[in-house]
Each structure stands twice: as C-alpha cells, then as structure tokens.
Amino acid sequence: MERAARRNTTVPFEGYSREDGNIPGNIMVASSDECVYSFAKSDIMEREQLGEDRVRVWVRAGATAFRLSRIRAGESQDSFTVAMENIAPPASPRLAGDPTPASGAVTAEQMEHIAPPPTEEPAGAPRYAGGDTAQVTVPRVLPSLSSVGSCWTASCLGGDMFANNCAHFLSDAFIRAGYTELAMANPYIHARCYTPARRPIRARDMWAWFQNRAVRTSRTPMRNTGWWSVFQLDESVYWGGHVLLLDTDTWTYYGTGNHTTWQQYLYQW
C-alpha cells in the first residue's frame, strides 16, 4: 500500500543509467538514442533494476530535471518538448453527456488474426530517429475507422508501456486494422516504441497523419456523424495533446482518456 501511494505522486522513467559527471548528485537516464534525462538522486523515490545498466526510476512529481535531446543547428528547438510519452498526461474526468469509454478487451476471435511480435527486429524496420522521410505505400482501399475500433486493445502488441500511451495504443489499433503505413518508415512519424512492434508513440505525430489522411474535418463532436479520429489539445495544460477514436453513433470513444474541455480536431476518411 505504501509503495502504491508513493507511485501515485511520482512519474516513471526508464532507460540506461549512469552517474551524471556534470552535475554532482544526479544520475543520467538515457530513455532512447534521442533523449537523455538527468535527475537529482534526492528526487528519485524508487528505483528498479531492469538489467545490468537499465533501470526504471520513479521521480517525484514536480521535481526539476534536465533533458538533452538531439537537435540540428539552425532548426526549431521544439525537439526539447516533444518527448511527451515520458510525461504522464492529466486525468480526463468524465463530464455529464460525455462519450463513454470502450472496453479494451480482445476477443478470442480477434486474437486469431493478431500475429505475435517477431523475436528480433527485422531488417529494414523503422528506427526511433529524428524523422522518417521514406515514402509510404498506402493501400487503395483503406480499412474503416470502425475496424480500428474493433482492434482496440488498450495495449501495444510489443507489451510495453510509457507514462503516456494515447498514441502508442491507438496506433497499435490502426496497425492491427490494416494501416500498415504506420508500421513502416513514414514522414509523419518521428518516434516509436522500442519493442519489435515499433508502434508510433506521439500524439502530435498521429495528428499530422490524421490531417494528411482526412477528407472531412470538424471542430465539434456531434452525435450520429460516424467515426472520427480525434486530436485534443490545450497547450496550457499539456503540450503533447491527446488522440483517440470516437464513434458518434454509439457515443463511445476508444482511447486512454477523453479531454472534452480541450480544443477538438476531428478527422474522417
């Protein structure tokens, strides 16, 4: 009980760790080849050893830390603020009249059509990098958005989790439904999970992909208008935004939350 209570007031980070030689009393956590954190040891409430050098640490919420991200000289410095998968989003309380959340359970019938992850990363698999620039091959007939809802499992095929999983789990459902363009090098996707599943993990990346795919847009969710891919944003609260899938016919959403008080950006195809 004490551990659970402590974790409710902390934020988890995972990566390879070593002493920070520049800041005495800090440790460095390399969460990927794109992002390295430095935390004061006094702000680390709990530490779990995951391997010889890899750790998971729970950092006191509100603690000041340092983050080093890859940049290109002369480009926008937004790269310092995009690793939102490692920052827990605010809660999304359900208000009167809001859509209800869908179940994340997978039926036995669905599992028959879900291939297990490969035992090792296949040659040519997309990597976590500053940007994927290769052209993607788009199927002529796109799977319906309702089929994406049918593939929603509230999880990633690779079995991993971040502090924020809205894009992580939603992209998993899109790929399961047949949107294979998200599983390969894609100019809109700039970060992926570290398992062989390689799912996109950032809401703003999915937002850019939604915009490219859309044939109809809206700024207001309305009942009985079909299925929509949704991006929600309030930069004063959470810079990374939030993504979900919304079935307005049943007034049900598929996602890790639903921030109905934020700005709404809806896309349909």
Please give a handful of descriptors for the protein shown.
269 residues, alpha+beta, 6-stranded antiparallel β-sheet, 6-stranded mixed β-sheet, 14% helix, 27% strand
Explain this structure.
14% of the residues lie in helices and 27% in strands. The protein is an alpha+beta fold. It is built from five helices and twelve strands. A six-stranded antiparallel beta sheet has the order 4-5-1-2-3-6, with no helix packed on it. The protein has a six-stranded mixed beta sheet with strand order 7-11-10-9-12-8. It is globular and about 60 Å long.
Write the layout of secondary structure elements.
Elements: H1 2-7, E1 10-19, E2 26-32, E3 35-40, E4 44-49, E5 54-60, E6 66-69, E7 100-101, H2 108-111, H3 145-150, H4 166-177, H5 203-213, E8 216-218, E9 227-234, E10 238-247, E11 252-254, E12 263-268
Quick summary:
The protein has 269 residues and is of the alpha+beta class.
How would you spell out the order of helices and strands?
Answer: HEEEEEEEHHHHEEEEE
Taking pLDDT < 50 over at least 5 consecutive residues as the criterion, the unreliable ranges are 75-81, 105-135
Structural class: alpha+beta
- Strand order across the largest sheet: 4-5-1-2-3-6
| Count of helical regions | 5
Tally the structural domains. Answer: 2
Percent of sequence in beta strands: 25-35%
**What gyration radius follows from the Cα positions, in whole Å?**
19 Å
Number of strands: 12
Question: Which bin fits the share of residues in helices?
Answer: 10-25%
Q: What do the pLDDT scores average to?
A: 82
* Approximate shape: globular
N→C terminal distance = 47 Å
* Largest sheet composition: 6 strands, antiparallel
